[in-house]
Amino acid sequence: MAGEKLQFSTWRPHPWHGLSVGPKAPDVVHAFIEITPFDVVKYEIDKQSGYLRVDRPQRSSSVPPALYGFVPRTYCGPRVAALSPSSARGDGDPLDICVLTERPVARSEILMDARVLGGIQMIDGGEADDKIIAVLPSDPVYGRAADLEDLPKALIDRLIHYFASYKTMPGEENKVHIAGTYSVTHAWKVVSASMLDYAELLARS
What pLDDT, on the 0 to 100 scale, is given for residue 158? Predict the structure, then answer.
């Protein structure tokens, strides 16, 4: 618009460190999407460059049942681990998030708003590896949901099954343990804890 000052980044910001967690966190956060329900390859952010790196082909026949990525400027450190009693420490990564939408989104490496509804308390090899469950606020089907109980149980069951089994093949020990799910109020605590863990990490860097 005429007279309006342009605001933009001259360089592409790092998705983890250069993007915002969102002005309405911990209720509504920004989610950077790494993989979609159509991906049979696991992609994840390269922590040095900020570009997506091929991590591994999905080992099982399962595909992620939701958009999957992380919340910028978060970190799973001691505060997140303290909210997961069975964990010895945080996993040292940004906080993971699954975003449900009614319309299929086939592209990754995108940024979207996500309303936090709850989460899955997952422990991977003794490390807190929580999965926040959220919805796209503008979604015509799921957008009005305010808590995990507002979603169909079948959707939550699919997410739990995926994360409980996505790293395991027959004959191998499963190091992943799902301790349960939690409601929106606990999810807000996890998001807030991850923001504080990130601020501490940044202060040490």
Answer: 94
